[in-house]
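Review this today:
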Amino acid sequence: MDPSTIGLVSLVLMVLLIQLGIHIAVVLLLLSFVATWLIRGNVDIAGNLLAKAAETSLQSYSFGVIPLFVMMGLLVSASGVGRDTFALAGYAFRRILGGLGMATVAANTVFAAINGSSIASASVFTKLAVPELVRQGYNRRFSVGVVAGSSVLGMLIPPSLLLIFYGIVAEVSIGDLFTAGIVPGLILAGAFILTIAAMARIRPSYVGNPTTDAEETSRLSAREITYKIGPITLLIAIVLGGIYGGVFTPVEAGGVGALASLLLALARRSLTWRGFWKVLIETGFVTSSVSILIIAAHFYASMLSLSRLPTVLGLWIETADLSFGVLLLIYLAIVLLLGTVLDSVSIILIALPLVQPVMVSMGVDMVWFGIITIIAVEVGLLTPPLGLSAFVIKANLDDPEISLNDIFIGAAPFAITMLIVLALIVFLPVLATGLIR
């Protein structure tokens, strides 16, 4: 069988096996091993390439950023910063129609700047925001929809774990990706707030009664405001300010952020020995899971190189005389389609090694390409049947009246908003690259 045919068959089998529920790392490692064996006709070569992928893929200095930022996010969650941020945002937007929904977006935006995970944001704000939104008269579908929509900000606003993962797999500067994610992340947050404002005008019954909310909210003193917003502001200033100010690298920023988060949790007396042990164990679980994914990604990329599939794809594009715009549209359509059946990491692992050689040959800025890829992939978190954020919200809900279907329907306006922002970043690349050029 022709090597490129073997590579193509392996891609189809990957999607099918992942759909059957087999872990993405197992699928990548197994199929890459078998495909390499078939292409080279020697099992020893396949074994050696697997060993090389395991040896070299985790030696990169940039890999150290993963456990450090994971630990920082877990420590911040343990310190109760998310709760304080939501309370303060709710106070700031209390007199606006739909204000508590806007406050959820604002709080998620701030929380994303120190957490880096959409799933963690969805979990935290499902428990914090949904009960309060429902209590104040917000429609249940709207309540879960705004949490699902705003949770995706965690994968775009730095320090995003998905941006880190993309940077390692694509071998792109993580610092540049962090910088490039700032403006698109803020634009997306602003677009979500405008979406809520529009929904409040069209269907006021969806968004409660801001006058009543204001009366029920006692005035916060300057000391209370400082207590709630001060720690998280300082943490963001230390971590992101240090990176963008050139004081330290993203890896060093992860270490500084983890230490600062630990001191914050201790200062607030919100971290017990048992809680700290739980944070360490969870950090280990996440890091080991990402480690095997990175090994699998490197082995898969080696297999694709041996299969010459990216080369064949490039020749086909050249023969078909496709313009870059048409090619990009096809790529984004495929990513959006995959987002309905696969998780974010799986899409990046499968698609990126295949298309990156073609994009590089066309002179595409891989930092900008990473931002639009992340946004397109994150739309999948909100779309059925495998919208991961929706499932996380459902798992954390204590309200039997809200179904999984309600979450998907509530998140639909925010998914549409994301597509509009995606188109904006595609047509105006400077929004992503302006701060690094």
Summary: Residues 211-217 have pLDDT under 50 and may be disordered. The radius of gyration is 22 Å.
